[in-house]
Amino acid sequence: MSILPPNKPQKARRVPRNYFIYGDTMSGKSYLAERFPSPLFLNTDGNSEMNTAPSIQLKNVRKSDGSLKESVIDQLDKIILALGTENHGYKTVVIDVIDDVVTLIEQAICYDNGVETLGDVPYGKGYAQFNTVFQAFVTELKALPLNTVYISRLMTLTDETSGHTEDRPSLKQKYYNVVNGNCDLVIETKRFGDRYIRMVKDRRIHYVKDDITDPTILRVLEHVNGVFDKPKTTTIKEQNEIVNKIKKQKAKEG
Question: Short name of one Pfam family for this protein (predicted)?
């Protein structure tokens, strides 16, 4: 049997599966992520007890002499392997927060090489190792048959000349580009008193409610402003009615 797929068009996947959520402290980022189906949280900021979902605390474990006993890199490898091979029942993996995962990976490489910064590793090997590990982490998560939710904090940038301010994810741009390039939806959360708002800031395609077959996912996305341009797909009958209406209008004008 050939390794090549049949030479015919395939149906495009029109359901978002990879998400990036960012927002200010206590704006509902983790709360929103917890609404996704059967989530497992990979936690870094010590807030796992605030959620009811199962969680794993990511960390570098060190020996008494300061050397690594187990690195977060090894921990992430084991978690991804288990998610991909074991019968676990999880449907979503949440990285809360991705900013700290970057820091933990950098720390692991520094501890392993006995240096303070990645730049102290000779010949740029520290940066090269980090890029390899981080790219592999994001790619392997995307390859899992699960929803993936990345959570990041908020950073506000101010233009000193105009005074204009802009809210952005606090994840450094070069790392954000890697993560965002593997995501379908970018969502910002905001809190105004007792009111919580979720807004789409970027999306891969225009999504339609009819395509979302998982009711839990649909329930989450219905509470995010800007996900859907319209509630459902336009049927052939509706398309023909629109075309006929345009033809009649042109006939009147002509």
Answer: AAA_24
